[in-house]
Design goal:
The chain is built from twelve helices and nine strands. By secondary structure, it is α+β, with helices and mostly antiparallel strands. Strands 1-8-3-6-9 form a five-stranded antiparallel β-sheet. Strands 2-7-4-5 form a four-stranded antiparallel β-sheet, with no helix packed on it. Keywords: DNA-binding, Transcription, Transcription regulation.
């Protein structure tokens, strides 16, 4: 089983990173990239809408059954794999982290959507029946616009993608509580963004509070109100997530992973991981969760 995890970083899609955007019918995409059956991570945003077929896919150790009218969203850095049966169809879109930078006044605008989330349990949605037809039309328009070599092509693609995101965010598919929690407080959003940048070096809530110009108590209160957990737990969860992502790469020893995550030694990392997950790093590597 572990032989199917040769690496996390993915090379065959680098040409799409250079172009900043790619859309294809899912069957064509899978046929062209048949080797992508092992867990891998992208440096770009990735989303798939299924219209036909069935199978399984995993995003950051959460397992999902693929089915028609399901859409999944992935942010840069997340790890996923899939096992689809024949006859899968739909649409796949990849776009770079900078694709919307020059288009939107608010650089972090995509972060406000509930489905672009580090918690992969929020990444997969069933498209509501009342918007399915419109969403399908927008994906077809994306394909058509992408085929046109016009000066406004990229901006038309951006507008169509934003329509898709906004329609889905406002649809019945989205958990209103999760959507409100993510979009309501700018300090919490900035805190999560800072964790994602500095989790391997900055571990204390007080250090993040200084970056955000708030007191540690205020930061803690905001996290408990909007996320349902303390600031320290959010930091630890992000470290654990990255540890799990690294552990499925068997080219790295546990000691090397501990070093990458800036733990003083292997035993301290093992103690931390066991306290947070209930198992040792070695046990995690043997578990069916991956």
């Amino acid at each position: 089983m572990h032989g199917s995890f040769p690496r996390l970083d993915i090379g065959p899609l680098s040409e799409y990173r250079e172009d900043h955007f790619m859309i294809a019918r899912f069957s064509d995409y899978v046929h062209e990239h048949q080797s992508l059956v092992f867990p891998h991570r992208h440096s770009f945003y990735h989303l798939v809408l299924f219209t036909e077929g069935s199978g399984r896919h995993t995003i950051d150790f959460h397992h999902f059954q693929a089915e028609p009218d399901q859409i999944y969203f992935m942010i840069p850095g997340q790890v996923h794999t899939w096992d689809f049966e024949a006859g899968m169809e739909g649409y796949v879109v990849n776009f770079s982290d900078s694709f919307f930078t020059s288009f939107l006044l608010q650089p972090e605008y995509l972060d406000t959507f509930s489905f672009f989330d580090q918690d992969s349990s929020n990444n997969v949605l069933k498209i509501s029946e009342n918007v399915r037809e419109r969403i399908g039309q927008l994906f077809e328009e994306l394909l058509a616009q992408n085929a046109r070599a016009t000066h406004w092509r990229d901006d038309m693609v951006r507008v169509l993608l934003l329509q898709i995101f906004l329609i889905i965010e406002q649809s019945d598919a989205v958990d209103r509580r999760k959507s409100a929690a993510k979009g309501k407080n700018a300090t919490v959003r900035n805190f999560i963004r800072l964790i994602d940048k500095h989790y391997d070096k900055v571990r204390l809530p007080g250090q993040y509070a200084d970056m955000l110009n708030v007191t540690p108590n205020h930061l803690n209160a905001l996290c408990k109100e909007h996320m349902g957990m303390q600031a320290g737990e959010l930091i630890r969860n992000r470290i654990v997530l990255e540890a799990k992502r690294l552990l499925i790469n068997l080219d790295l020893t546990v000691s090397e992973i501990a070093y990458r995550l800036n733990f003083n030694d292997n035993s301290y990392f093992t103690k931390f991981f066991r306290k947070e997950t209930g198992m040792t790093p070695e046990d995690f590597r043997k578990s069916p969760a991956i």
